[in-house]
From TrEMBL:
This is DUF1348 domain-containing protein. It comes from Streptomyces lunaelactis. It comes from the Bacteria. InterPro entries: DUF1348, NTF2-like_dom_sf. Coiled coil: none annotated.
Length: 145
C-alpha cells in the first residue's frame, strides 16, 4: 500500500483495537463527516468498501462520494456526534445523532447505529448504518454548527 497517494495511505490506528484506539477511530470519523467533504470522508474507506445507509446499498469510494454529495446537498448545516458503543478485534459499533435542516428550513435530529469493519491498514471495508429522523424545532437543537 503506497503511503504517498492519499487514496492508498494507511489510516492508523490499526486493528486489533483497544478502548483507546477504537475511540480514536470514532473521533476521526466524526471529524471527517463534520467536514462535509465527500472526498475526505471516502479516503477512510477501502476502494471496494460496502455500505448500507438506511435502505441504500453502496459499493466503492466513487459511489460513497456521489452519495455524500447528494446527502449534504439535502441535509444542510449537518452536524454529527458519534459515541463508541462497543469494539472487538477489527470491528467497532457506534451510536450517533446528527442535526440538519432541509431547504424549507425545517430541522431534524437523526439517530442511529453503525457497525464498522476494518482491514489491516485501518481502512473501513464495511459500514452498516440504521438511521431514524425526528423533526425538531430550531430551539431544540443540541449540536452547535
Amino acid at each position: 500500500m503506497s503511503t504517498q497517494d492519499p487514496a492508498h495511505r494507511p489510516r492508523p490506528p490499526f486493528p486489533p483495537f483497544t478502548a483507546e484506539t477504537a475511540l480514536q477511530k470514532v473521533r476521526a470519523a466524526e471529524d471527517a463527516w463534520n467536514s462535509r467533504d465527500p472526498e475526505r470522508v471516502a479516503l477512510g474507506y477501502t476502494e471496494d468498501s460496502e455500505w448500507r445507509n438506511r435502505d441504500v446499498f453502496l459499493s466503492g469510494r466513487a459511489e460513497i462520494v456521489d452519495f455524500l454529495r447528494g446527502k449534504w446537498e439535502y441535509e444542510l448545516d449537518y452536524r454529527l456526534r458519534k459515541e463508541l458503543w462497543a469494539f472487538t478485534d477489527n470491528r467497532i459499533a457506534v451510536r450517533f445523532e446528527y442535526e440538519w435542516r432541509n431547504d424549507e428550513d425545517r430541522w431534524f435530529r437523526s439517530y442511529g447505529n453503525e457497525n464498522w469493519e476494518f482491514d489491516e491498514h485501518g481502512l473501513m471495508r464495511r459500514r452498516y448504518a440504521s438511521i431514524n429522523d425526528f423533526p425538531i424545532a430550531p430551539d431544540e437543537r443540541r449540536i452547535a454548527i
